[in-house]
Design a protein that fits this description.
- By secondary structure, this protein is mainly α.
- It has one domain: Four Helix Bundle (Hemerythrin (Met), subunit A) (Up-down Bundle).
- It is built from 4 helices and no strands.
Length: 125
């Protein structure tokens, strides 16, 4: 059964919520990358107490950069889902691989999902 108008409205709200969350996270990352090393680490001095502190800081920065990259890709998916929802609402929630309907429960969790999550062969166009 295709998505109802109420379900599409719910998914639009979910997409907009997720979009705000990702933008907030990316804004926080941007603020930390603009801070000095001393400000980021919370150190009172610019001289590290131990060489391992430098490794810990570098590891944290790599993790933050990886998260920012992941969230940027997620933002692109969310924006693409909003575009699909606005341009072809009757096709929103249709698996791009099989042509089957994506379960509403899956869309509620991942509202930008493009596939139904089942392993299957790619549908021929």
């Amino acid at each position: 059964m295709p998505l109802t108008a109420a379900q599409r409205q719910h998914l639009e709200r979910r997409l907009l919520e997720e979009r705000r969350r990702v933008l907030t996270d990316l804004g926080a990352y941007s603020e930390t990358t603009n801070a000095t090393e001393q400000e980021r680490s919370g150190d009172l001095t610019v001289v590290p107490l131990h060489a391992a502190d430098l490794g810990t800081d570098a590891n944290r920065e790599e993790l933050e950069a990886a998260n920012a990259t992941r969230e940027s890709a997620e933002l692109e998916e969310i924006d693409a889902a909003l575009e699909r929802l606005y341009q072809t609402p009757e096709r929103f929630g249709i698996c791009e691989t099989s042509g089957e309907e994506i379960p509403f429960e899956r869309l509620d969790i991942i509202p930008w999902a493009r596939t139904c999550g089942k392993p299957h062969e790619r549908r021929r166009a």
